Amino acid sequence: MSAHDKSHDHSHAAHDHDDHDHGPVKGWRRWVFATNHKDIGTMYLVFSLIMFFIGGSMAMVIRAELFQPGLQLVDPQFFNMMTTMHALIMIFGAVMPAFVGLANWMIPLQVGAPDMALPRMNNFSFWILPFAFTLLLSTMFVPGGGPAGGWTMYPPLVLQLGTAFPMLIFAVHLMGASSIMGAINVIVTIMNMRAPGMSLLKMPLFVWSWLITAYLLIAVMPVLAGAVTMLLTDHYFKTTFFQAVGGGDPVMFQHIFWFFGHPEVYIMILPAFGIVSEIIPTFSRKPLFGYDTMVYAIASIAFLSFIVWAHHMFTVGMPLAGQLFFMLATMLIAVPTGVKVFNWTATMYRGSISFEPPMLFALSFLFLFTIGGFSGLMLAIVPADFQYHDTYFVVAHFHYVLVPGAIFGIMAGVYYWLPKWTGHMYNLKLANAHFWLSNIFVNVLFFPQHFLGLAGMPRRIPDYSTQFADWNMVSSLGAFGFGLSQLLFAYLIWQTTRSGAKATDKVWDSGLPQGLEWTLSSPPPYHSFETAPEVK
Amino acid sequence: MSKILKYLTATAVAACLPFAAAFAEWELNMPVGVTELSRDIYGLHMLIFVICVVIGIVVFGVMIYSIVSFRHSKGAVAANFDHSTKLEIVWTIIPIAILVGMAVPAADKLIKIEDTRDSKLTIEVTGYQWKWQYNYLGQNVSFFSTLSRESDKARQLGSGIDPYSVKNYLLDVDNPLVVPVNAKVRVLLTAGDVLHAWWVPAFGMKKDAIPGFVNELWFRADQVGTYRGQCAELCGRDHGFMPVVVKVVEQAEFDQWLKDKQGAAAPAAAPATASLPAGTNATESSDGKDPTGPLPSTSLANAE
After folding, report:
1. CA-CA distance, A100 to A255, in Å (whole number)?
2. What is the ipTM of this complex?
3. Which ranges of chain B have pLDDT less than 70?
4. Domain containing residue B45: CATH number
C-alpha cells in the first residue's frame, strides 16, 4: 500500500529545490510546528549534538577527578551524579535521538516517500525531548542533588534519592514515550510508504536495521516504563515490589530492567550496522556481500537480545542452570555478529577502496567494534565475569561498542549524508583531522581501561588506590583529547550548513551508491519524492 | 592491531609476574590469585583471551590486507561478487565450534565455583553504607570493618594529604577479616541497606550482597598473606571507600585469634543479623548441602 497523502502540507509551493528557507514557513513556527521529516530530523540531530556535548562535559568532570588519586575536584556524591547523568544523557539524549534523526532524514529518502507517515506525531515525539532533558538536567539543582545511583536505577539505592526521584522517573517516562512514537512512525512509514517495486528484501540496510530497531523499541520501552513506575509506587504508595522488608525482591528490578536494557544495547548499535552497511559498499565500489544474510543476522541479533539479559547480573547469585543458559545464549550472539563483520570484510575484499571521511569512520567502527565484541565475548564467560564484573574492564567494553561503535557509526552517517542534506561538500581536511584525532584519542581513552579493570579497579568510584594511577592518567589525557576533538565536528557541521563547494546529486563519485536518496538533488526538495520512484 | 599489542605486553608482564603484585604499576593483566578458583578463572581468562587474539589476527589481517591491496588510488578494479553461500556457512559453523570449545571448560569451572559443600568455616558478611560486618557463624565473633582512619583522612576532598604517603591508600581497614590458610571458607552474603558486592580479586570471586537475601561463595586460600579488594556494586556516596581486607593466617594463629576475639566479645554478643532464615544460623561446618539447595537460590525465583 502506498498512501502518499499530503495531509501535513502547509501553505507553500510544492517545488522547492533550494535551501530549506523557501519551502517551510519562516521563523520559529517552522521548528515548533514542524511536520517535515527533514526539519524534524535536523532538530533531532542538533538536539543530539547538544546532548553529546553536555554528556561529554560530564565525562570530562569524571576523567578530571580520576586524573590522579585523591579527591581534588568534586564530592563523591557529585561524582556519582556525573556518572549517572553522563550515561542517561548519552544513551537517551545523544545516541538514540541521533539515530531517530538519521531515520527521519533518511528513511523517506531511501524508501522513496514524500515524508514520514505520521508527521504530527513526529513533531510531538521530538518536542517531548527538550522538556524531558530539561527536567532531567534540572534535578542537579534540587535539594539532595540529581540521580546518583547509576543509570540502571537499581533499588534500594535509587529510592534514597530525594526531590529528584519523581523528576527522574517522569523524565524517563517522557523519553520512553518519545522513543515509542518515533518507533511507530518508522514502522508505519517503512511498511506503507515504500516506492512501488521496493519489496522488503530490496530495502537499503539502513532501513532494515531501523525497522528491526523500531520493533525492539516498541517491545522494551514499556518494560522500562513499568519498572520505573514500580519504583515510583515503592517510593510513594507503600508497595514493596523491590523491597525485601515487604516480601519484594531487589533483584527482580534488575531482571526487568535488563529485559529492557539488553535490547536497548542493540537499539543503540543496529542502526549503526545499517549505516556501515551503506558506506562500505559505496567506498569499496562493490555491492554489499551477502545482503540477505546481513538482514537475517540483524534479525537474529534482535531475537537473541531478548534472551540474554541476565548476563548483566551474573553476580546476583542465580541458580547454576540460569547462569549456564545466559552464558550460552550470550555467546551465541557472537555468531550473527561475526557473520556481519565477515561480510563487511568480504565486501572490501577485491573491492576498489577509497578513504573518504565516512569510510574512515566506518573502518574504525569495523576494527574497534570488533575489539568491543571480543571483550563482550570474554564477559560472557561466567567464571571470568566474576572477576570482570563491575570493573573498568566492563567500562572499557561498553565504551568500545558505544563510542567507536554507535557514535562513530553516527558520525560516519553524518559525513556520508551531510553533503546530501546541506548541498555543500564539507571541508575534507578538517573532517580527516577530526577522524584521526578522534580515532587516536578514543583508544588512548578506553584501551587502558581494560588494564585497569583486569588489575582490579571497580567502576563508579571517584578515587582509587595508587596502583591504578598510571593508566588512569593516560585514560584521562585521552579523554581530554577526545573531548576537544569533537569541537572540530561541531564546527565542521556549522560551517558546512553555510558554505562549501556545491555537492552533486550523487555526492560520491564511486558508481555506487545506489540508494534512492542519490537520485534527488542535494539538498533534496522539501517534500522529497512528490511522485513515487519506480524500483526495479 | 592494538589487540596484538595487548597480547605482547600481557605476555611480557606474565613473564615478570612475581613483580606484578599489588603495587606493580602499569599493570596490564588479571592477577593470578591465591586460590584454586582464581587460578582456574585466570586460566579461563587467558584461554579466551588467546582465542580472541588469534581470531583477531585472522580477521584484522584480512581487513588490513584488503585495505592495503585493493586501494582505489592504486588503480584497483572492483570485482562484482556479492555472496557465497558456501563461505557464509563456513563462517557460521566455525565460530559455533569455537564457542562450544569455550563453553565446555567455562561450564566445568562454574560447576566447581558453585559447589559450596564441605566448608570448614562459615562467615556471614553483611554490607552496610559504607562498611562490612563479619560474623563468624556459631563462633560468637562479629565485628565491623571500615576504611582505615589514615586513608579516610587522606581521601577527603581537598585534604592536602598525598595519597602516595598513605600505606595501602583506600585498601586498608581497621579490622580485617581473618581466615585460616588451606581451609574452605564459605561466605554468606547479605546487606543491611542497599546492594553491595564483596570482592577480593586474589580469591577470584565476587558476589552481590542483597538486602533480604543470602548469597554464598567460597574460597580456599593456599598462601598466607593479606589480600585486598573493594565493594564492587555502587552503594551510594562512599561506595569507593569500603574496602575488603582479608588476612590469611596459619590455622594455629587463626585459632588463637578467634579465641582472643571470643574472649573480648563475650559480653556484647553478636549484633542481630536478622537476614538469615531460621535454621541456617547454626551452619558452622560441613553441612553437605547441594549448591542449588534451598538456602541461597530460593531468593531468585524469577531467574529461570
Report:
1. 27
2. 0.88
3. 1-25, 265-304
4. 1.10.287.90
